[in-house]
Structure prediction request, 543 residues.
Amino acid sequence: MAFRLVTRNLRNRISFKLRSASLLHSHATSFGFKEVREEDKSQMVGKVFSNVASNYDLMNDFMSAGLHRLWKDRLVSKLSPFPGMKHLDVAGGTGDVAFRILESINSIRHRALQDTINDDLREETRIYVCDINQNMLNVGKNRALERGLGEDKSLVWVQGDAETLSFEDNSMDGYSIAFGIRNVTHIEKALTEAYRVLKRGGRFLCLELSHVEIPVFKELYDLYSFSVIPRLGEAVAGDRESYQYLVESIRRFPPQERFASMIVDAGFHKVEYENLVGGVVAIHSGLKI
Amino acid sequence: MYRTVVNRILLSGGGRRLLRQPDLRTVISSSRFSTTTETQTIPNRPLNPPDSSSLSSSSTSFQTPPAAGDVPRHERKNPRAEYEGEQARVLQASLRHVLRLGWSEKAMIAGAKEVGISPSIVGSFPRKEAALVEFFMDDCLQRLIDRIDSGEELQNSTPSQCIYKLVRIRLEMQAPYISKWPQALSIQAHPLNVSTSFKQRAMLVDEIWHAAGDETSDLDWYVKRTVLGGIYSTTEIYMLTDSSPGSFPLPSRA
Prediction:
């Protein structure tokens, strides 16, 4: 009997190790470095963003020293927006990417060739901003008003979940998700949904904080992330916990190559990624054929 | 992994000609910003060496040989050939809009709409307008090679006559686009695009010399090609300003 007890203990210990190893790789149950139930994750993420919504843009500026603007510019230039485009920006609550796309389409450069066809097409442009959190969308709507885009019918603000989008199949020319896919509970579902709503020839673009591999820079970046950012969050936004979650969730997110293979698995072709600032940020892109 | 596949493709392409694998270049692109490091491509599946019709838009499906325990893969078409085929179709259709819209993104967007694909695909070309120009140059080279292979007119010519005919044939292919050709030249001269356009011209010149029966294998090889390259380019530029009647036969609708 003692022998059976020993083997049972051994089996339990091994299976526990295996289980915890698999948990470590599962993004769906990670909330930063904490382990949570899947059902709870989206709620907890929702709370984080309700807390940070009002100071979101300010904190972005502080944390990235204003670089996030350049990163979003790069994302939009990779997208190459055109008049008449139907674009979906997921988790784009405060509208940064959507405003840039609209401005790119309406820019002087594009309007230089004054043909009436293009003007009509520009009327047809639709940028859908989808976010799971209504507070973020409200902040975005206010910003649109400030920029004078309040009456622009090209911008459509929709509340929704990246894992179950309310848009039709093959309806979007472009899909972008900037700094949002990290917070999705099931990344594969979000990718499948992205594939579903895109038209043939449509592009998927994802801007996300990613993994740094460069030796010395990696240590400096870790130091900055874990020491400076939560304190900054506390000082500026009064919320240390949310920013602790932020930096931890970056570490739990799959690295560039693995995420790219997940995009391939969702059915995209020509999947590429581009590292910015040594890997602090990566832009993944895919094409639906 | 990708590099070994490239080597395999280049080696197996074989034949006496310089290999034409223009589409491979578009897959790996280097980033322009100083803060960025690299762009990497993830191949969908282990690639098979495509045959030399990688330029053509007709779909050829490649069957990967069934490997042990690898069942789902051998039912799929080669995915890289698929998206490259689509890109080639879009570029082919865009050429029809070049006269009206120039060698620009607008022409490519119009081409994509014509083919029924979302114009977002234009964003996936690494150096947009340059991709269109390069596609055209490759297309012309392919047509030239086809003319050479069907070869009746080159039968009884001396080498210099041969070269004259081939250069003329090749430049006449550009004649329909002559009003927008200066734009194409400026795109090709852009620092980002110079290396590709240089390679394409080198291939063209090599092809012409080869058809003329050149078999040198010393320094003369380089000299001949450089000289022909110079002659070709100056003729091309002269063509831009040549407005004498009957200077070159234009298609009737132009």
Summary: The beta strands of chain A are 30-31, 34-35, 86-90, 126-131, 155-159, 172-178, 198-209, 269-276, 281-287.
